[in-house]
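Question (not urgent): is this output format expected?
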Amino acid sequence: MPGSANGSPDDVFAPERQERIARLVEEYGRARVADLASRFGVSSVTIRKDLVALETAHRLVRAHGGAIAIDRSRPELSFDIRERLQAEEKSRIGAAAAALVQDGESIVMDASTNGLRLAGELAGHPGIVVLMLGGRVRWEALSVVGQLGNGLFDRINVQKAFLGAAGFTVESGLADATDEEAQIKRSMVGAAREIIAIVDHTKWERAAFATFCSTDEIDIVLTDAGAPPAMVAALGSRNIDVRLVDGTPADAPWPADSTTARQSGR
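Got this back:
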């Protein structure tokens, strides 16, 4: 499959080549740009475009110099992989969550939103005081877990808890991949006056190992339009405020054009 100066033959055969690249990465777990370019007889630039397209389709994750496979059978993907999946949806959900924070409030965020990276970004901003829990650092989530952090929530008042999850079902509520993470999150749930779940559609109707927040403890759910309508309706029947970050009302016919989010009045 020869390439060309203007790239047009590469474009013609792109879907076939991308499918073969995806299968190679799935089979071997990873692949280098240089090796793929040599194998398919195209430029490195063309291969990088292929990898962008495949990552957008959630077939693989780009890495330095190549790509790695997404092992969806693993209970927990590493942080650097998870932050690139559903990135657009997560960005909109994050912005919606930030809009709920009022000046002067004390808030708590779990490892899906806080952890070491967020502490580093917030530290030093005028008017923001950052408290970190003590414990063991988990590289998978770049979070701190363990018994050392439990006592903090007995000494502070928290207005809002923003909690992500590895899985979210009506029966089990919000759940995480490990009991260590779930333990810290249970403390957050117990300390906060308002529980705000921030979960993109890929976490809905998915069971995870350890529940940390029952469904009826949740006040607000921030998600995207891919959330399953039946489960959204089930949450609405429990007076849980479900907000779709693209502005679609959660109780409208699917999809809807209105820009008003449903308010449960809870």
